[in-house]
Amino acid sequence: MENSEGVKIESTVVTEEPLISALDIALFVVIITVAYFWYFKRDKQSSSSEKKPYTIQPSSLSSIEQTSNSSFIKKLKSTGRSLVVFYGSQTGTAEEFAGRIAKEGARYKMKGMVADPEECDMADLVEMKEIQKSLAIFCIATYGEGDPTDNAMDFYEWLQNGDADLEGLNYAVFGLGNKTYEHYNEIAIYIGQRLEELGATRVHEIGLGDDDANIEDDFVSWKEKLWESVCSHYGIEETGEESNIRQYKLVDCSEVLPERIFSGEISRLKSYENQRFPFDVKNPYLSKIAVNRELHKSGDRSCMHIEFDIDGSKMRYDTGDHVAVCPKNSSELVDKIGELLNADLDAVFSLLNTDEESSKKHPFPCPCTYRTALTYYLDITSNPRTHIMKELIEYASDPKDQEKLKLMASSTPEGKKEFHEWILRDNRNIVHILEDLPSVKPDLDHLCELLPRLQCRYYSISSSPKVYPKSIHITAVLVNYTTPTNRVNKGVATNLLAQLIPTNDELPQPTIPIYIRRSQFRLPPKSQTPIIMIGPGTGLAPFRGFIQERGYARKEGREIGEMVLYFGCRKKDEDFIYENELQEYVANGTLTKLHLAFSRDQPEKKYVTHLLEQNADELWNIIGEKSGHLYVCGDARSMAKDVHSIIVKVVMEKGQMTNSQALNYVKKMEQQKRYSADVWS
C-alpha cells in the first residue's frame, strides 16, 4: 500500500529539483580543473627545486638557464679547458687575481675559466678528474670575523657538511687576508686543508696575501712559484708567449635608446627610479640625507654626523650593524681622464665578454657612457696593481715611459722596489700615472676593462633602531691628505657626503644609495649584563647606538647593567664628539662611568690604553667577577692589539692566572661573544 504523502514528495523531487543539476555539473568541472592544474604545477615546482638545492642562481635566470649555467664541468669540457679559477671576493680583489691566473694559463697550454662558486654546483668538483691535466685554483678572501665572503658561503658550508670523494682533483689555494685581524686568512687555510682531507691533491703550497702589507707582491711571488709547481706536476713547459688578449670587446652603442642606458645603477636598470624592496648590495636604497652636521668644535679636521632617511623603505637594522654607502668619483678626476686621453666621455659603449661561456657578460652595467663608467663603476683613486702597468706598456710612445712601466710590471727586486716607491709610497692613482707619463695614451675602453670596480664604503651605525627606527646615523671623518708628490688625495665617500647638505623642505633633498650589512657586534641579550666599551675617535660610533638602546630600556622601566665607556680624542675643546649627549647619559644614570683621554691637552700624551691600565680592578670586576661583556671599536693595527694585551695582563694579575691560562680565558670570552671587536686598518 503506497503512502500518498510519499508519492507526492517523490514527484516533487523528480520534477522540480534533479539530484545533479546543470549548475552542479559546471561547478564540479571547474573544481576538478583547478585541482588538476594546482597539483601538477606544484609538483613541477617542487621537483625543479629538488634537483639542485645547493646552487644559488641570479633571480633573473630561468630555471633552465640555472641548471645549465651551474655546471662548470660541462663548460670546461665543451670548450676544451682544463683550468678553472674560483674566487671568494667581497671587494673584487680576489676576482681580479682569479682573472689574472686564468689568463696566464694560456702560457702553459692550460686554457682557463674564472668561476663564481655561488653560481656553480660545486659538487661537480668530483668530476674534475675526468678532464686530463685539470687544475682548480681557489682565490679566497677571509671577511669579517673569520667568515667566508658572501659568494663563497655556500661552498664553505658544502665543504663543512659534505663528504664528497675528491680523489683526482688537483688544486691550489691563494688566500687574501689582513694580519691586523685575528682570523688571518682563516677561510683559505680551512678550504686548503679540507680539500686535502677529502682526497684532493695539493699541486702547490697555499699562498697567504696580507693586505696590511703588500698583497700584490704576495700574490705575484706566489703566482710565479705556482706555475713552476704546475710545470713540474704535469710535466709541461712554459710556451713563452705573452697573453695580452682582451677579455672584453668594445661594442658601439650610439644607437641604443636612452631608456636602455645605465646611468649609475648597480644592477637593475632604472632601479633608482623604481625602488623595490628588499635592498642589498645589488639593489641599494636611494636614501635622502636628513641631517649633515659638523661634530668637531674647532681645528682643521672635520667629522660629520649624518642621518640617512629610511622612512617607508621597509629597511630594518639592529644596533651594531654597518651601513654601506655607494659613492661616486669626483667629476674633476673623471674630466681629467677624458682630457688626458682626448676622449669623448659621453659616448655610449658596452664591453662584452669574449668568452661566450662566462656567466659574467660585462665587467660593469652596460651599456653606459664612459662618464658613467668612470663616475660610478670604476675605481680611479686607488693604487693600480702591476698587471695594469704591464697592459699600459703598449700604449707608451716614449721609450723612457715604456721602460719605466716594464720595470714596475716585472717581478725582479728592482721592479718591485720601483713599484713600491713610485706607486705605493708616492700614492699615485691612474690619473697621476697618466699625468706623469704623458706619452701613455691607452684606449679608454681598455682602461675601463683594466680598472677595478668602485667599492661601497662601510660605516658602523651610530644609532639604535629603538630610538631612531626611521633613520640610520653614521659618524665619519672627512678624508683629505697630501701625498709625497704634493697632490691632495680625497676620500671618495666622505668628500661626496660632505657635499650632501639638506636644504629646506621646498627643494629636493640630496640622496645617496645605501644598504645594511649585518654584523655580529651585538649588545648582550639581557639588558642587566654589565658592559665595557672602548672606542676612541669615531670608534665611539656603535657605542652611541648601544647607549641609546640601554637608555631606551631604562625609560621603559627595565633594569640595565653597568655601562662603562672609554673614549679618547686629541683635545676636549676640539674633537670631543657627542660631548653633550654623553654627559646627559651620565647624568641620567644610563652611563655608569665615562673615562676620557685627551691625548694633546697635556705635555705627556694620554690614551685610553693608559686609562685601562689604571682601572684594572674595574675591568676585572666586570669581565671576571660579573661575567660582563667587553667591546672594542677603532684602529686594528695598534689600538685594538694594545687593548687585547692589557686585557690579558689584567686577567693574569687580577684572576691570578698564568699567561697561558689568561690567554685561554680571553679566547673563551671571544668564543662566548663576551669579547667583541669592530675594527679596521
TrEMBL record:
GO MF annotation terms: flavin adenine dinucleotide binding; FMN binding; NADP binding; NADPH-hemoprotein reductase activity
Naturally occurring in which organism (per UniProt): Rhopalosiphum padi
GO cellular component assignments: cytosol; endoplasmic reticulum membrane
Name this polypeptide is given: NADPH--cytochrome P450 reductase
Source taxon at top rank: Eukaryota
InterPro entries, per the entry: CysJ-like_FAD-binding, FAD-bd_FR_type, Flavdoxin-like, Flavodoxin/NO_synth, Flavoprot_Pyr_Nucl_cyt_Rdtase, Flavoprotein-like_sf, FNR_nucleotide-bd, NADPH_Cyt_P450_Rdtase_alpha
Described purpose of this protein according to its UniProt entry: This enzyme is required for electron transfer from NADP to cytochrome P450 in microsomes. It can also provide electron transfer to heme oxygenase and cytochrome B5.
Protein family per UniProt: Belongs to the NADPH--cytochrome P450 reductase family.
EC number: 1.6.2.4
Record-annotated membrane-spanning stretches: 20-39
Record keyword Transmembrane present: yes
